[in-house]
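Thread: 2-hydroxyacid dehydrogenase, structure

OP (GT): Posting the sequence first so everyone is looking at the same thing. Length is 330 residues per the record. Can we get the C-alpha cells written out before standup tomorrow? I want them in the notebook alongside the other entries.
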Amino acid sequence: MTNSTTSASSPAPGTVAQAGPLLPSLERIIQQEYAAVRLPDDAAALDPADAAKVRAVVTSGRVGVPSALMAALPNLEIVTNFGVGYDTTDVAQAAERGIQVTNTPDVLTDCVADTALGLMLDVFRRFGASERFLRDGRWESGGFPLTRRFSRSTVGILGLGRIGQAIARRAAAFDATVLYTTRRPVESVTWEHIPSAVELARRSDVLVVAVPGGAATDGLVDAEVLRALGPDGFLVNIARGSVVDEDALIDALEAGEIAGAGLDVFAHEPHVPPRLIRDDVTLLPHVGSGTRETREDMRDLTLANLRAHLAGQPLPTPVPETAGLAALTH
Ligand code: NAP
C-alpha cells in the first residue's frame, strides 16, 4: 500500500493538490509549504503526468473528490476534507483503494447549532420578515401580524450526532421538549427516541434536519414527512439539501401543508429555486459554519491531518469509512 512510503521530509512539488476553492489562508499555506497545484474542475482535463504525482488532495465538503477525479489520481493516498460532511467524496472507492479521508468534526458544531437556533427563532417569530416590513415603511399603516412562540415548543431533531445534540441542548435552554430520530437510539441522552421520521414530524412543532448527506439519506424528508409535520409545523434544514425532497417542499409550502421553512442548504447550490423565495421561508446561503473563528479552526484541523499523513503519523480525524486503514498502514 502506498501510504507506507510517506516521510517527514518535504514532499516534491505536485504531491499536494487542491480541488475546488478553499479558505484563502488555507490555499496560501498549502501553496507556500507544499507548492500545491490546483486540479482542473474537469477530471478529463488532468494531465496524466501531473495526476501521477498527486498523493494528497485538499478539498472542501462542497467540492470533494468525486469518483472520476479520484479514479484519475493513481497514487492518491489521502483526501483531507475541509468540513465535517464529505458526501461529495467517493469514500467507497477510497476505502477500496486504501485512500484515507479526513474531515473536520467538532470544531464547527457550535456554529452550525447556533445557525439552526437562528433559523428556528426566525421561522417562529419572523424577525426577518418583520424587519423587511419595517424597512419597507409598512409599520406606519399598522402593526406586524402575530407570530408563534418558540419557547416551550416541541423540537424534533432528525439526526442526533454532534450537531444534533448541540441543537438539542440549545433548544432545551428554551424549555423545548426535545424528540429525536436516529437509526440507533443514543444511550447517553434522555430525550425521547422516535423510530421513524414520519412519526417524529407528526409530534413536532419544528423538524430540524441534522443527518449527513449522501445516498443513505437522499430524500429522507419527503412529501409524507412534510404532510406529517402539518400546517402548523416548520422545517429547518442545516444538513444537506439532498436530504429534503425540494420539489415536495415547494409543493407543501404552496399548498399550506406546512407553516414555513428555514433553510441553510439547497439541492443544487448555489441555485435556489425562485418558488422557494417566499415570505414564510428563511433562506441562508450555506453559512452554517461561516464564522472567522470556526473556519480558522477547520483550516487548522485540515492542515493537522495533512501534516500527520505526510509525516507518517496517525491522523487526528479520519472518517469512519477509512479509519481502519490508518491502523493498517502505520
Ligand atoms: P454526526 O455526528 O455523524 O451525526 C449524524 C447523525 O445522523 C447521527 O446521530 C446518526 O445516527 C444520524 N443518522 C445518520 N443517518 C441517518 C438516517 N438514515 N436516519 C436517521 N438518522 C441518521 O454528524 P455531525 O457532525 O452532527 O454533522 C451532521 C451533518 O451536518 C454533516 O454530515 C453535514 O452534512 C451537515 N453540516 C452542515 C453544515 C452547514 O454549513 N450547514 C456544517 C457542518 C455540517 P445513526 O447513525 O444512529 O442513524
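GT: Both are above now. Quick notes for whoever picks this up: The chain has twelve helices and twelve strands. Confidence is low (pLDDT under 50) at residues 1-8.
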